[in-house]
C-alpha cells in the first residue's frame, strides 16, 4: 500500500505509540480522582496540555481537551453564540469550511441565527473586502479555516481576525490541517485542533481559548476541564496528543523541508494534462489536489485500490456528491469529479510518491484510450 491521504488522517508516530503504551497497559487511574495515581495522571495530562498549547503557539489563553476537532468546533460555535448578547445573532463563515463548521452553523440557523457563507475566488481564498462588508455590529463570530482540508490553501487568518475584532466579533480558526505545518497567526480567539492529523491518536481534539473568550459549555456533567467540558479525560489519548504536538514542534523545519521536496518531486512527475486546484502559492505543500480533463476519479480510485488517496474530504468521499470546496472555487460538477486529492507528509518517501503518480497517470491515460 502507498498512503497518500494525509489530510484524512496520519500514521501514528512510533514515539506517540511508545508514550501512550504505559497509560493503556498499566496506568489506569482516573485523572480526576485525588489518589496519588490519579494525581500522577492529572499531572501528565497537564504536561500534554502545555505541549499542545505550545504547538499552537499563541500567547496566554487556556486549552481544553475534547473528543475530536468536530466537537471543539461545535462547542466553539454554539457556545460562543450562547454567550453572545441578543444584539449579536450573526455568524460569518466561508463556503469552503469543514462540515463540522458548516453543519453547526446550519443547526444554529434553525435556532434563528443568521449565517453568511462567503464565497471564495478560483484560488480558494476569501476576498477581504467581501468579508469586511459582511461583518457588522450584529456579528458574534467569524469562523475561518487556516489550511483547507481539501485543497490546502491558506486563508489570511490574521487579517480575518482583525476584521472580526474591528466589528466587536470573535474569531474562530479551524487549524486542524495547519497545526505543526503552518504557523498559526496571532488574532484568533478560539482555535480547534485534532491529534490524528499530526501523527497522534484518533478520538481526541482540543480547543484553545483566549482569556475571557471561553464558550458556554456544550457537554455538562462532572465539571472537568475547568467546568467547560465535562467527561473523564483519557490520559493515554492526552499523552499521545501531547507527544505528537511536541514532535510536530521539534520537527517542524525537517517536516517542512521534506514536504517541499515531495511537492517538487510530485510536480516534476505530473504531466501537463494535470491542473492544480486552488492557489499554488498560498498553500500547504503536503496537499496536492489535481484534476484532469474528463477523468473519472471514482473509477481511478477503484482501479488503484493499493494507493490510498481521496476525492476530497473523507466525509464527502462517501456521499457521491461533488465536493462543496471544488464547487466553491468554480469547478463544474464534471471537473470536480475529475479531481483527486493526494496528501503526503513525514513518512512518505519520494520513491513511493513518484511511483504512485506514475501509476495514477497511467490509469488516467488508460481511461482516455478506453473512451477514445
Ligand atoms: N476540520 C478540518 C479542517 C478537518 O480536516 C477535520 C478532519 O477531517 C476536522 C475539522 C474534524 O476533525 P476530527 O476528525 O478530529 O473530528
From TrEMBL:
Catalyzes the removal of elemental sulfur atoms from cysteine to produce alanine. Seems to participate in the biosynthesis of the nitrogenase metalloclusters by providing the inorganic sulfur required for the Fe-S core formation. Signal peptide: none annotated. It catalyses: (sulfur carrier)-H + L-cysteine = (sulfur carrier)-SH + L-alanine. Transmembrane segments: none annotated. This is Cysteine desulfurase. Its cofactor is pyridoxal 5'-phosphate. SUPFAM superfamilies: PLP-dependent transferases. Gene3D superfamilies: 1.10.260.50, Aspartate Aminotransferase, domain 1, Type I PLP-dependent aspartate aminotransferase-like (Major domain). PANTHER family: CYSTEINE DESULFURASE, CYSTEINE DESULFURYLASE FAMILY MEMBER. Residues 2-353 form the Aminotransferase class V domain. Belongs to the class-V pyridoxal-phosphate-dependent aminotransferase family. NifS/IscS subfamily. Keywords: Iron, Iron-sulfur, Metal-binding, Pyridoxal phosphate, Transferase. It comes from Sphingomonas sabuli. InterPro entries: Aminotrans_V_dom, Cysteine_dSase, PyrdxlP-dep_Trfase, PyrdxlP-dep_Trfase_major, PyrdxlP-dep_Trfase_small. GO terms for molecular function: cysteine desulfurase activity; iron-sulfur cluster binding; metal ion binding.
Amino acid at each position: 500500500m502507498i498512503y497518500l491521504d494525509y489530510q484524512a488522517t496520519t500514521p501514528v508516530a512510533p514515539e506517540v505509540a511508545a508514550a501512550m503504551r504505559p497509560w493503556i497497559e498499566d496506568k489506569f487511574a482516573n485523572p480526576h480522582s485525588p489518589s496519588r495515581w490519579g494525581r500522577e495522571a492529572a499531572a501528565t495530562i497537564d504536561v500534554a496540555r502545555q505541549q499542545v498549547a505550545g504547538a499552537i503557539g499563541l500567547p496566554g489563553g487556556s486549552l481544553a481537551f475534547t473528543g475530536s476537532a468536530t466537537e471543539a468546533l461545535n462547542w466553539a460555535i454554539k457556545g460562543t453564540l450562547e454567550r453572545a448578547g441578543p444584539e449579536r445573532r450573526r455568524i460569518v463563515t466561508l463556503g469552503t469550511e469543514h462540515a463540522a463548521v458548516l453543519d453547526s452553523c446550519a443547526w444554529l440557523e434553525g435556532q434563528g441565527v443568521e449565517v453568511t457563507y462567503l464565497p471564495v475566488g478560483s484560488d480558494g481564498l476569501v476576498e477581504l473586502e467581501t468579508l469586511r462588508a459582511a461583518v457588522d455590529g450584529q456579528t458574534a463570530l467569524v469562523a475561518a479555516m487556516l489550511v483547507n482540508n481539501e485543497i490546502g490553501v491558506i486563508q489570511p487568518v490574521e487579517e480575518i481576525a482583525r476584521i472580526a475584532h474591528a466589528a466587536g466579533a470573535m474569531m474562530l480558526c479551524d487549524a486542524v490541517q495547519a497545526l505543526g505545518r503552518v504557523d498559526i497567526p496571532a488574532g484568533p480567539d478560539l482555535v480547534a485542533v485534532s491529534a490524528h492529523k499530526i501523527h497522534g491518536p484518533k478520538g481526541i481534539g482540543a480547543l484553545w481559548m483566549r482569556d475571557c473568550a471561553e464558550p458556554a459549555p456544550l457537554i455538562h456533567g462532572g465539571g472537568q476541564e475547568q467546568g467547560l467540558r465535562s467527561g473523564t479525560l483519557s490520559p493515554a489519548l492526552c499523552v499521545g496528543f501531547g507527544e505528537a504536538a511536541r514532535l510536530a514542534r521539534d520537527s517542524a523545519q525537517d517536516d517542512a523541508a521534506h514536504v517541499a521536496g515531495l511537492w517538487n518531486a510530485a510536480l516534476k512527475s505530473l504531466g501537463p494534462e494535470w491542473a492544480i486546484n486552488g492557489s499554488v502559492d498560498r498553500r500547504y505543500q503536503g496537499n496536492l489536489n489535481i484534476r484532469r480533463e474528463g477523468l473519472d476519479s471514482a473509477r481511478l480510485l477503484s482501479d488503484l485500490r493499493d494507493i490510498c488517496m481521496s476525492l476530497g474530504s473523507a466525509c464527502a468521499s462517501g456521499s457521491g456528491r461533488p465536493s462543496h470546496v471544488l464547487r466553491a472555487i468554480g469547478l463544474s460538477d464534471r471537473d470536480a469529479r475529475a479531481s483527486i486529492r493526494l496528501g503526503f507528509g513525514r513518512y512518505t518517501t519520494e520513491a513511493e510518491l513518484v511511483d504512485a503518480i506514475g501509476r495514477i497517470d497511467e490509469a488516467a491515460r488508460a481511461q482516455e484510450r478506453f473512451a477514445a
